[in-house]
């Protein structure tokens, strides 16, 4: 930050307006002191697109602000790496855009040069034949196909690729991977009255394997004529005052009943209702809470926008979105809650309108308890919800004494995911660190819930992320909440830790031993997969041993040290194999 400040023009005074950071992604917003009074409505946002859609190793940070009367937003993004991951980069872009309206987009977008050998690329660079090289740029191709960055503009690139160099030099990558040079670092813009004055790289900076790029823009800014604005505003207020007693706000809705069919875990479904102001005056609308309820809608439902302003004769499309996550899935799986809600659309100084929401939810192993899943021989979607409720009520003693419904040692769904990774991913690099694809997760979920396939679809990364999501969605974690405090108190003594595990309910103990045996087996292949305890412990410890309240830093450290005992105390290989049955 100090280095950035020192690089500002010495003949001008600058003020730091905002700093936003997501792990290694940072955005600093400075403004000339003379312009500072005209900066308002400064907001920032971070969007993680790494593992489980939340980790900050990939994603974006953004700062939105108003300068005079123009809204400007700047996004700094770091998208997925590797040449073949352009589809993931496109998905990252869409995930980010869903939550942020942007004007300037910059960062390590990680799009590469395709279909050219490294030596040929370097030869083109030597000849400064950037036009030929640019025709093979992944970002250009994806933009030409309108797959990503639709409506954005990028200036002409007349500088050599900015990646990958040996750190501290201008030498292309000499490592064994010998990366193909590429324009990973880009600056794009979208909007009116924007003119790019300069687009360049900075070859003299050598502290990274990237060469930074910069751009200078000239932007037209809307400035309000305060006197005219005040006079116009007062005229409008007087007109509205005259009409207020005669005109009551009124709207019409295209539909008041919506049904969402076959909703699935972590799968978005959306429908649109159009609200039209058919009254004689502008109106403010807002969805309001029902009596004795904490929010205007159930936690699995959102309305966007939830409030707004409609001029006379204007319309707005409101998206009604259903999304079942780890919080809402457990009760929906058992039929204790239904996809039913009533939204109240309230008009200021007007009447209320009621929108009925119904839906059907397909039960999933995601969000189901280990105990219930151990009792299921068939796929969960073939089991009536009444049966699922009855199974969830059985005590541990009933499970042990039951001869008719003898439980499985571990849920078959965990076995399928772990078995897939055990067979196919022991030597997979970046496992549990690189996210999978949303579409592949949905296929894996459907396979587990319906039993439609004997083998899981999708990449190893998608199966690995599905396993993490499964553990995260358990209503009662692998180590039940009732053992949490005891684990924290005994975290430093491995014998006491083992004693606690021995006291877990049988299915929870089996799953814990199965998972740790699997992770130990993955560590045996660390020379290939590059996994070690420093990677696995932070990821799995907070899923296996978690609190139903917010954890402080000391608790998180103890949780990691507790789980670490079971990875570093490596048993003989034959013992591991015994815990990983066919």
Automatic annotation (TrEMBL):
<dbReference type="Pfam" id="PF22669">
    <property type="entry name" value="Exo_endo_phos2"/>
</dbReference>
<dbReference type="InterPro" id="IPR047078">
    <property type="entry name" value="RhoGAP_OCRL1"/>
</dbReference>
<dbReference type="GO" id="GO:0046856">
    <property type="term" value="P:phosphatidylinositol dephosphorylation"/>
</dbReference>
<dbReference type="InterPro" id="IPR013783">
    <property type="entry name" value="Ig-like_fold"/>
</dbReference>
<dbReference type="GO" id="GO:0005829">
    <property type="term" value="C:cytosol"/>
</dbReference>
<protein>
    <recommendedName>
        <fullName>phosphoinositide 5-phosphatase</fullName>
        <ecNumber>3.1.3.36</ecNumber>
    </recommendedName>
</protein>
<dbReference type="GO" id="GO:0004439">
    <property type="term" value="F:phosphatidylinositol-4,5-bisphosphate 5-phosphatase activity"/>
</dbReference>
<dbReference type="Pfam" id="PF21310">
    <property type="entry name" value="OCRL-like_ASH"/>
</dbReference>
<dbReference type="GO" id="GO:0030670">
    <property type="term" value="C:phagocytic vesicle membrane"/>
</dbReference>
<dbReference type="InterPro" id="IPR008936">
    <property type="entry name" value="Rho_GTPase_activation_prot"/>
</dbReference>
<dbReference type="Pfam" id="PF00620">
    <property type="entry name" value="RhoGAP"/>
</dbReference>
<keyword id="KW-0968">Cytoplasmic vesicle</keyword>
<dbReference type="InterPro" id="IPR000198">
    <property type="entry name" value="RhoGAP_dom"/>
</dbReference>
<keyword id="KW-0967">Endosome</keyword>
<dbReference type="InterPro" id="IPR000300">
    <property type="entry name" value="IPPc"/>
</dbReference>
<dbReference type="GO" id="GO:0031901">
    <property type="term" value="C:early endosome membrane"/>
</dbReference>
<feature type="domain" description="Rho-GAP">
    <location>
        <begin position="386"/>
        <end position="571"/>
    </location>
</feature>
<dbReference type="InterPro" id="IPR036691">
    <property type="entry name" value="Endo/exonu/phosph_ase_sf"/>
</dbReference>
<dbReference type="GO" id="GO:0007165">
    <property type="term" value="P:signal transduction"/>
</dbReference>
<dbReference type="GO" id="GO:0052658">
    <property type="term" value="F:inositol-1,4,5-trisphosphate 5-phosphatase activity"/>
</dbReference>
<dbReference type="InterPro" id="IPR048869">
    <property type="entry name" value="OCRL-1_2_ASH"/>
</dbReference>
<dbReference type="InterPro" id="IPR046985">
    <property type="entry name" value="IP5"/>
</dbReference>
